[in-house]
Amino acid sequence: MKLTSKKRYLNFLLIFVLFAGTLFAQSENEKIDNLITQKRSFNKHNKNTIVYKIQLYNGSESQAYKIKSNFQSSFPEYKTKIIYKSPEWKTQVGDFETRLEADKVLLIIKEEFSGAIVLEENI
């Protein structure tokens, strides 16, 4: 079977398009990989992460420490800390990575600390 010049041209064109498409796809993949690498580097150097905390109390210093002590007795598995932001003292629990995680713990804590709330914080 003899190929006409028109068919040869179409075959050549098809091969060229496939070859060019492969080169284009490779360069696009390289660009994407480069962008991913840049984003990872940016994230390492520019930490602006959101964490969630549960606030148990907001008020006087003595009461904040009392709440912390009571909480640690009931829930020793959670990290508790006292924060002072003028003019009030805050008793807070944890650094949860997701709101869902914080809400799950909040449901447990609310049985004993009904005024507890979830706060979002940038670090």
Automatic annotation (TrEMBL):
<keyword id="KW-0732">Signal</keyword>
<dbReference type="GO" id="GO:0042834">
    <property type="term" value="F:peptidoglycan binding"/>
</dbReference>
<feature type="signal peptide">
    <location>
        <begin position="1"/>
        <end position="25"/>
    </location>
</feature>
<protein>
    <submittedName>
        <fullName>Sporulation related protein</fullName>
    </submittedName>
</protein>
<feature type="domain" description="SPOR">
    <location>
        <begin position="52"/>
        <end position="118"/>
    </location>
</feature>
<dbReference type="InterPro" id="IPR007730">
    <property type="entry name" value="SPOR-like_dom"/>
</dbReference>
<dbReference type="Pfam" id="PF05036">
    <property type="entry name" value="SPOR"/>
</dbReference>
